[in-house]
Automatic annotation (TrEMBL):
Domain of life: Bacteria
Name of the protein described by the UniProt record: UPF0125 protein MED297_09656
Family in the record: Belongs to the UPF0125 (RnfH) family.
Pfam families for the chain: Ub-RnfH (PF03658)
Organism encoding this protein: Reinekea blandensis MED297
Length: 124
């Protein structure tokens, strides 16, 4: 049975103090995590005002990866690391990226590649 102007359902709750109906605005975000073996992107609907960490937890992505601890994992949005994922809110269309620790320091990796290239050049 339609309610108002053809609407049949909505999300929200009655605010008894203000005697008004408070509607929850839902937004879509993606949550992404990858290992060497597997990558996964989960689309999730969350309430406006949800933080990065809350969105990641709501996605359930941690059930797909044994080593993933969403309470401690560093996070970002579209490649930009977020210092406080417990405080920053997601926006419609954001991709929350969950980061894992680097296996090797980037500076050390460059030094290793340079040493290998030098060794390869010397063996020619």
């Amino acid at each position: 049975m339609p309610l108002l102007n053809g609407l049949t359902h909505f999300h929200g709750e009655w605010n008894a103090i203000e005697r008004s109906y408070v509607e929850e605005v839902m937004i879509k975000v993606e949550v992404a995590y990858a290992t060497e073996e597997k990558q996964l992107i989960v689309e999730v609907d969350v309430e406006e005002g949800t933080t990065l960490r809350q969105a990641a937890i709501r996605s359930g992505i941690d059930h797909e990866f044994d080593d993933l601890d969403l309470n401690e994992a560093p996070m970002g949005i579209f490649g930009r690391k977020v210092a406080k994922p417990d405080q920053e809110e997601v926006k419609e269309g954001d991709r929350v990226e969950i980061y894992r620790p680097l296996k090797i320091d980037p500076k050390q990796a460059r030094l290793n590649r340079a040493a290998k290239a030098k060794a390869d050049k010397g063996s020619e």
